[in-house]
Amino acid sequence: MDKIIQKYEAIVIGASAGGLIALHRIFSQRCLDFNLPVLIAQHICPNRESLLPELLRQHCTGTVKDAEDKDVITSGNVYIAPSNYHLLVEPDKSIALSVEGRVNFSRPSIDVLFETASEAYCDALVGIILSGANSDGAYGVSQIKKRAGLTIVQSPDSAEFDTMPKAAIEASNPDFILSLDEIGILLNTLCNRG
Amino acid sequence: MNEVEQVENERLEVQLLLEAIYLRYGYDFRKYASAHTKRRLEHRRALEGLPNLAAMQHLLIYDETFFNRVLLDLSINVTEMFRDPWFYKSVRELVVPYLKTYPFAKVWHAGCSAGQEVYSMGIVLQEEGMKERVQMYATDFNELILAKAKDGIYPMNLVREYTANYQQAGGKSSFSDYYTADYDNVVMKRFLKEQVLFSSHNLVTDGVFGEMNTIFCRNVLIYFNRDLQNRVLNLFYESLCPGGFLCLGSKENIKFSDVAHKFEVVAEREKIYRKKRM
Ligand SMILES: C[S@@+](CC[C@H](N)C(=O)[O-])C[C@H]1O[C@@H](n2cnc3c(N)ncnc32)[C@H](O)[C@@H]1O
């Protein structure tokens, strides 16, 4: 329970197949004073414009945008990894992008986001893995866990595709395994402490 | 040792490593984006089975072939022909008409990697009847990749993607007019190389590349920290004629630099800027 009382500075979310619906569901529960910055790596087809910004914008008071290089990560904003770029967090908590090769067959890769974010935020980071049909993100969550951040995985039986949640659970023994609604409630609770 | 200390110590190790590379080989990575640099060095460390980055320092100092491998790790060379087709469409519509106003123009591709961008622009210029009137300079700090750019030989399995890009970019002919195929590769046709000068240039340590009408530098600045981006954008400003164009990668920006107000935005999404006539 200590982990719920702790103060957090940022949330990273990784999602793949089935992730769009899951993200929408979580965001539709955001309350107005939800003020932590959120960074999202969602696998999508390269060269396809993501629907995600449009979908999430209706639930956010801050800016929802494709992350741009050197953006300073700001409370209340949502940053989405652009298609075909890896999203990284710099030690000074700004954004860096990279076109280096695919990691886990993915660009953006969830592992890349989670690992660099956990180095920047250490125990002040919340990491969430949602539905997906591969195992990207499993290593990333374990890094967040190792650095005493808060780790949450969507319960496999509630996920449209359970491979990604299962891999993350196996790799990291996360702090919480929850349904989407429960994740929404937990995030609101965390924000109200901040 | 707690995790925060661990992370800080690793940062220190990276810093010392980059210092060693600079002092020993003259390549300066000290102002590259640090999360990226750390990842690439860690990647090499794991491949070599070394216990930590400090152990890599010895190898780096004493073994030049090892250094060359690390150099490749640090310079991400991923590129493609007509990357972001809509960008090339805008280049055709906005930049080429400007080049046409000159009897002779100069175009610089900085950080050209294996040359795909250079040939893409070569094709655009050819189709616009401008090829003979433009001198192109293609530079990169990585000599190995520059040699590949000069050869212009690319794997056959990429051609389908390149062809689709070419068509979306508003290509006026057939993409197959521009290469000859052998078994596994395609070779870009000779006439596309005639007006190109390939040479080594390091954006961190080398100087101005004078009197350019247009500069392409796409997906290179993302690897630099803000300070270094600022230096390089100043270098580009100095290298451009008044009214000249600067083309960056689709997620890059000049807004953080102190020359930002000396450029006007020509195309926001395409990241095409123009040096103001002061
Ligand atoms: C990701 S590639 C971009 C290639 C191409 N411009 C494109 O957008 O498709 C980045 C290139 O920048 C080069 N580069 C990195 N640091 C450099 C420096 N200091 N000076 C010159 N080139 C550099 C790398 O060698 C690599 O070829």
UniProtKB/TrEMBL annotation, chain A:
- One GO cellular component term, please give it: cytoplasm
Q: Which residues form the CheB-type methylesterase domain?
A: 4-194
Q: Which UniProt keywords apply?
A: Chemotaxis, Hydrolase
Q: Which reaction does it catalyse?
A: [protein]-L-glutamate 5-O-methyl ester + H2O = L-glutamyl-[protein] + methanol + H(+)
Species: Halodesulfovibrio aestuarii
- Asked whether the keyword Hydrolase is assigned, the reply is yes
**What GO terms describe the biological role, i.e. biological process, of this protein?**
chemotaxis
Q: Does the keyword DNA-binding apply?
A: no
Q: Which GO terms describe its molecular function?
A: phosphorelay response regulator activity; protein-glutamate methylesterase activity
Q: What is this protein called?
A: protein-glutamate methylesterase
Which PROSITE patterns does the record cross-reference, listed alphabetically? CHEB
Automatic annotation (TrEMBL), chain B:
What GO molecular functions are on record for this protein?
S-adenosylmethionine-dependent methyltransferase activity
Domain CheR-type methyltransferase stretches? 2-254
Q: Which keywords belong to this entry?
A: Methyltransferase, Transferase
Query: Domain of life here?
Result: Bacteria
Pfam families in the cross-refs: CheR, CheR_N
What InterPro entries has UniProt attached to this entry?
Answer: Bact_Chemotaxis_MeTrfase, CheR_C, CheR_MeTrfase, CheR_N, SAM-dependent_MTases_sf
GO biological process terms held by the UniProt record: methylation
Would you tell me the protein name for this molecule? Chemotaxis protein methyltransferase CheR
